[in-house]
Amino acid sequence: MYKQYREKMSSEESQDSVALLKLRFTDTPYVFVVFGASGDLAKKKIYPTLWWLYKDGLLPPTTKFVGYARSKITIADIKSKAWQYMKIEDEDKEKAEAFFKVNYYVAGSYDKEADFANLNKEISRICGDSHRLFYLALPPTVFAPVTTCIKNTCMTKGNFWTRVIVEKPFGRDLESSNKLSVHLAGLFSEQQIYRIDHYLGKEMVQNLMVLRFGNRIFGPTWNRDNIASIMISFKEPFGTQGRGGYFDNFGIIRDVMQNHLMQILSLVAMEKPPSTNAEDIRNEKVKVLKSVAPVALDDVVLGQYVGDPQGEGDAKEGYLDDPTVPKGSTTATYSLAALYVKNERWDGVPFLLRCGKALNERKAEVRVQFRDVAGDIFKPGECQRNELVLRVQPGEAVYMKMMTKKPGMGFSCEETELDLTYGNRYQNVKMPDAYERLILDVFQGFQINFVRSDELTEAWRIFTPLLNKIEKEKIKPIPYKYGSRGPKEADDLCLKSDFKYTGQYRWVRKN
User: Fold this and answer.
1) Is 260 a known active-site residue?
2) Fewer CB in 10 Å around end: N or C, the chain?
3) Is 48 left (phi over 0), alpha (psi -120 to 50) or beta?
4) SS3 for 457?
5) pLDDT in tens, 430-473
C-alpha cells in the first residue's frame, strides 16, 4: 500500500501544481475547518489565504469553510476582523461577499467530545460526506485534546480522506516533540499529518532545489573543497512589539533557528534525491540532520536587545522594557550558532545560523561564501571572496558576488554581481504567499514542503542539549543596541568560522 502511495505521489508531483489541481477537482465536497478561528493567526493569515485561493479559483468549487473556537462569535465578527488583511480590491468585493456566504462558525471547547460531535453534525449538514481538512491554528497546549476529539468524532468515512495541519511550535524540546509525535502517530497516519513551517512555502526556499540540482555549474563546486562557510540569516528590524510575554516562553532559538533555519540548512546541504517525490526529498533531509552534532555552547553567541537612547519610537526601549516580559529575563532575542555537517561533502565547513530581533534591517537569506582564489596574482586584499546569495525576503533575488576589472584605463579589480532580481525578471508574475502554496499542497496531498516526524526528532536532538544548558545555568545574553547588527562577539565567531565580512560591498536591490 505504501509503495503504491509513493509511486502515485511521485507521478503526480512531477506535474504542474495548478494545472493538476484543476484537473483533479470534481464535484466532490470539501470542508476546511479552522480551529482557533477567533485568533490572530486565523484573522491575519488563514482566512486571508483561503480568500486569495478562493478568489483565484484554485480551490474546489464545492469547498466550504468552518471556523471553530471557544469564543461566542459569528461569521460577521470573523469577517470584520479579517477584512483588513484580505487586500480586497473594489472589483472583488462582490466575490468576497460570496466567499463569506460559504463560511460557517461553530463555538465549542477544545476538550469535550460532545462539542466536536456538534461540529461533526454541522459539517455533515453543510456538505454531507466530504473530504475534510482540519487546520490547528492553536497553542500547542491543546493539540492533544483537539486531535483526540477529531479522531473520535470528526473523521470521514468511505473513500473520503481526512488531513490535519499542525502549526509550530512542534514541542519545545526533544522530549515534548517526541511525545507529540507519538500522540499524533497513534491517531493518524503520517500521510494524514501536515506539519506546516511556512518558510518551506517561500519562493526562494523552494528555488534551492532547482538551483542546486538543475544547474551543472553548481554541482562540482558545492562541497568542502570550494566553499568556506555558509551563512543562513533571519533578521527583523523590530522588537517584540508588546508580545514579549509570549516570546519569552520560547526565545529566538526555538522561535526561528530550530525550525525555519534548520529546514533551509537541510535543503542547502542535502544530497540529490532520486526524484522529486516527497519521501525521497525528506529522506535526504533527514540524512543531513543525522550528520549534524548537537550544538556546543562555545559555538553560540546569545544576545538581548537594549534601547537606543538616540533612537526614535520603539527603538528607545529594550526587551526588558516590554511590560509583558518577566523582570530580569535572560531569554535571547539574538543568536548566532555554528553547526557542522560531518559527512564527506561538508566536513569542516561551518554552517552559521543567525537570527535576531531589533536589528539593523529586515532580511532573510542564504549566503554561500566560496574559498579564496588559490595563487592570487592581484594586489593583496584586492580580490574578495565570491558569494552566491539567495535573498528570501524582502524582494526575492539570486545574485553572485564576483570580481571584475574596474572600468577605465587602469587594471584594478572591483566587486560586482550577476543579478537575478525577481521583481525585474518576473515583473508580471504573481508570487504566491507561502501559506497559499502550502494550503494548496494540502488540498492536493503533496507533502514535499511539510516536516516529517523524524526531521523534527533530529532537529530537536541538535538543539535540546544547548537549550537545557542555557536554561539550567541561566546564561545571560550579551546586550546589543536596538537597530545594530547584533553583538560584536558574533563577528568574532564568524571570523573564527571562516566567514569573512568586510562591509565594503553592499548589494542594492533594484526596483
Assistant:
1) yes
2) N
3) alpha
4) helix
5) 777 888 999 999 999 999 889 999 999 999 999 999 999 999 99
